[in-house]
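Hi team, as promised in this morning's meeting, here are the two structures we talked about. I've kept the exact order from the run log so nobody has to guess. The first one is mostly here for context; it's the second one we should focus on when we meet again. Sequence first, then the predicted structure tokens.
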Amino acid sequence: MLIRFVFLFFLFSHQLFAQQQFSPEQLNQPKKYGPQISALLSTQEIAAFKDTISNTLLLRNGFRSSDFVNEEDWLAIQDSVDVYRIDVVYSKYPLRKGVYSEIYPLLCSRLVHLFELDEELNSTDISWNKVLQTACHNDQEADQLPHGIVIWYHPRVETEEIVETELVIDEERTAGATQTTLAELSATIDYIAGSSFFSDSLKAQLTGKTIDEQRKIIQTTLEKELATKPDQDLSKIDKIQRQLYLNELNEVVNLYRSDSTVYKILSRHPEWQDVAVVNDWTGSMYGYGTQVVEWHIKNWEISGIKEVTLFNDGDMKSTFNKKIGETGGIYTEKADNVEKLIALFQLVMMKGGGGDGPENDIEGILAAIEERDDIKEVILIADNYPCVRDISLANRIGIPVRVIVCGYNKEYGVNSDLVYLAKITNGGIYTIEDDLENPNATFNEEGGLISQDEHRFKIAKKTCGSDKLAKAAGKKAFKSIKDTRFKLKKKITRLDLSETELTELPNRLYKLTALEYLNLSTNKLAHVAPELGQLTRLSYLDLSHNQLSQLPTTFKQLKYLQELYLGDNQLTALPKNFLNLPFLVKLDLSHNSLTDLGKTSNLRRLKECDLSGNQLMTLPRSFQSVKYLRVLNISSNQFSEFPVALTNLRFLEEIDLSNNQLTKLPVTLSGMKALKIVHLEGNNFPVEEQERIRKQFGEVMVYF
């Protein structure tokens, strides 16, 4: 029974992800395929393994055991490291007549347990080895030696060095994060307040104010400036005034230094005419964005830049409030309006700090095109490392996008989302040295890389995997039940029936037991039949924006769910053991009428959770077991006290508690060591408590 269970799990995984090192089918038949599996690992013999190597993690097995005793150690770091080598460590014992016979079932079982823990480790991109320990001559000696799986990794830390040919990328840049800390906000306020733009009387207004009050004063001043300044025409501005503008831009350049990628590429391509420039306007990109206006001022006679659009990933919007195509934080100004642009730069800085990593590039591009009807091309000033949240909207663009890649490194390559964007729009990829047009790569309709034969540059592997289920390579979602009629059921893995006015689900749907992706959102479903539990291979299920008031108890059978969306329904309670989903990574129960979650017994992999817009007054104590949670939204509920269950979530990075009934926070929240962003807007905190909270959280960004 266990073998069948594991087999089904890995068959499911194999269908989702290509380029596996080990065949799941073969791993479950060790007597037949054991020698073949073993041959896929290089062999090394040592006396005894010592677990003292930096940037490695030993997942420990017992002697002759395949179960891990410390799997939580890997779950705690798996999203912040890049794995490049794995060693299977065990003893070269027993010897019979001086000859060692490898125990293939044990080897295969250890690999099965490893991939059950993290299926992404089953990859040909990783170097695989067996390490056989020889310092053992009996059971007791063998039992004293360490046994398990050693994972070799590089932390994603900011560096430009290449270590053993492996590029080390800053964790926040790889994830695309541009989190704004309190120190960064304070530095931005100091820069803006100290710039030549602000008068002495305005600077005096900031004296003695809290950081929130200072921010509001600056934003109000900048917004007024943008509303009242007249349009400009660079052809009518003299050389002295243009130089003054360049001096103001240099203040930004000096504060946020970058290489000259953008300026050099624009100089290489004066033929680009009637273009909108779209800038990623978050921390690491300020220096690149100002090069656009600098080049435009210096080359106004030949410049084809008509407008400049800035996007900052949502104006400090919390992660769960960001919807594809509706993230916001997008601002556009005519390229000749230099004074307005300088004010806009500062305003969008103040409003930025969008929280998570993925960015809304496509939304910014579409907004820029809508501003005027004479735009023929788009120049996107893009950070090479973040994923593009709304890449699925790229097919709406309709004109070429010239992607200027900032932070390009040949060893890392070019972000596959940016390559897809260039490909689908007949644009190009541009680095500080090269023009890389007509990329030779094939993508599916949702931007997933299927194949490539590109020798000019490397296409980087995706670093954000939250949407990989919706982009299983090459797989197209069926759009209606009728389309599935003459297809083999086992080949139908993706079905999208969203926005089809469904009031009930057809019986045939429950027979599509190979389904991995099912989207039923934005319909009129009032109930779901118990037969839903038959779709046991589902890893993605979206039932949001319906009229569901209850869920079937068979929901607990969907054990392989990784993403579950039930927001905007009418749920008042959850079935017993509903939250026993061991592989769940994302959960959305927002905008229902829940007063109680019940017991959260097995959500050990959960990273993002949205419970906003319910009637919760507390969280169950069992919620503290969701210890690897990174993002939590419990805004717009009935909390009058900070939930005790959250106080020791040491990996939590962002929490939204806005629009509750809080008047204070606990004095000690020392367990929440990873916090970066806390939303507390719409509560009842006295000014004194706000100041205490700011001091308590130190560099954490707190919004009141």
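And here is the second protein, the one for discussion:
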Amino acid sequence: MQDGQITRRQLMQWGAVGAGALAVTGLPATDALAAPRSGVRVTDLGPGVNNFSLAAAIAVGDKAYIASRNIDPMRIISFDFGTEKVTSVTEGPGISTQLLAVDPDGRYLYSAIREYDSAPGPGFIRLDLSVADAPKEDLHSIPGLDPYAISASPDNKIFFGGREPQPKLRQYDPATGELTEIAIPDPDVPMIRCLLATQDKIYIGTGASLGAIPTSTKAGLFVMDRATKKITSILPKEFAGQVEVRDVGLYDGTLYVCSTTDDGAAVAIMDAEDPAQYTLVQSKQSFLRLPRKLGDKMYFNGAALIELTLSTGEFREIKPKDGDFGELWGLWIREEKVIVVSAFGLIFEVDPSTGTDTSWDLIEAGAPMGPQLGMSIAADTHNVYVGGTNSVARHDLRTGKQSRVLATSESKDILLHRGTAYLAQYNAVGLLAYNPRTDDEWTRKLADLPPKQNRPHQIVWDDRHQLALMGLQSDYNAGGSLMTFDPKKGATTVAVNPIDDDQMVRAVVAHDGVAYLGGQNVATTAGTLVAWDPVRRRELWRMTPQDKPTGITGLTVLGHHLYVMCFKGDFFVIDLRTRKVIHSADHGPVVPNYGTLLADRGYVYGASSSDFVRYDRKTFARTDLVALDADWYGIPRAAVDERGRFYAIRGRNLIRIEVGRR
């Protein structure tokens, strides 16, 4: 580092995010590109979340290859441990990938990437690592597949699969260039979760962590004979009925299978030649994956760096000397040390024998930052928070600077109350908190999410009961829950399946001590509204406003009217005194998918990926205020501060919207 140069880590310690913070300062106060309705003023505040985020990492020789997450364009970079620099940046399709695999010769790096209409493929690609800049080669389009597992065999075949109807195991043969579907291990399971290919076998782990319906099968472990294509189940009985087999490793003829029991995450240590012979080792973690062996030790990602001593069956957590590892997306052994690639954009080298670690910052090493897809937004007088992936941007409205708050995983929604940001974190991370007056760049954990209720959707404040209310979805069992949190007592309650065992709690609003819950299922064929007492945890009444339900995605209350927005634009107003629908309309032209609602100063406003709108409080007619064309990874929302100024996402930028009152 040259004298006088500011590093990102210093900026993080001061509460700023390097180039992202500097770029936001001094932006023009008006936006010439916007064409808002007369009386509406739009100010562009720069990228909502500016970061280098990642979701996959693999070792190839003395380099780490790392795939970005939710930044445009998606990139695969290489980091050289010798030079401590990023040595190549290759742009790819889609928005992110969790899958990287290298061929036996280390020549080609393969990736399978989900294809979107807005981020098309071909999604199956490879990089030529024999060339300095690692150029990309498009191999095949894989429409309809959300890839979750990939493995390269010793004889140079590439196998991959993921989430789709009747999940298929695919084989790519580099010698012929052919991609073929070779097996369906279980037609009733939502996804192939993990793969391990050997010279003569393929081990296939399946599960239902996403896309489960009541008839879905769950955890499965199969071995396929590559010569005969015969598939045999080898699932340990303790894993039967669990959500998924998360990962599998093979060392010296022994399989290490990661799944769960009713007591938490466990590892089945199996004889690969006789899988009926196994030992089960139980941990206290919620999950384990990425099994890596070093002598008598196994290392795992278990929402932390977890060490298992094989000779004793004892687990322990290894922590870095400063801060937290966050989400682990890469884990391997290098020179008797453990390499951890963190979603915070950091690489750690951990010496487990001494507990010491060395770290490298990928942005300082040359990784390119970019605007992330937004997941959530909240505002008060002084700050606007925009949730992203493994980071939350805090926009200081007094200085115009953006600083990064380190929050593990995805901030699905944010509640701001009395200066504290309450972050509802997927995947089962919990309820986190951050207050710039008392916290540095790290969030604090307040509460765990309820068991198997892993996906938050909305968190709101119940002023009557002084509680935070969070609507959740179970990716494992379908259905959902309502969780309450009392900030004074630190206490939580949970009501599982308050709507039914099929519908998640997609939307929540609190009014006069009643929580109104909007339901939706994964098939978008249900949309029940439930009035709920959050203290006594009992239903007050329910109704389904749509004739053909698609799901309720937005709720707000103004006066004695409950406003309801449904998936793809069905809109209803319900008189809470009579519990009858008094107005309905189709707002599909401005709600192409998810729409949300908020009330402020006598008006109701709506946000979608398409538009920011207002609804007349007497006629309920819609007025389109600002076209957004927003890039969201989560549910599109808007926020309002105490001065009545609105904040939304347009493209990937944060904008302020000031609306004249009439």
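Starting points for discussion:
The first strand starts at residue 40 and ends at 47.
The helical segments are 8-14, 18-24.
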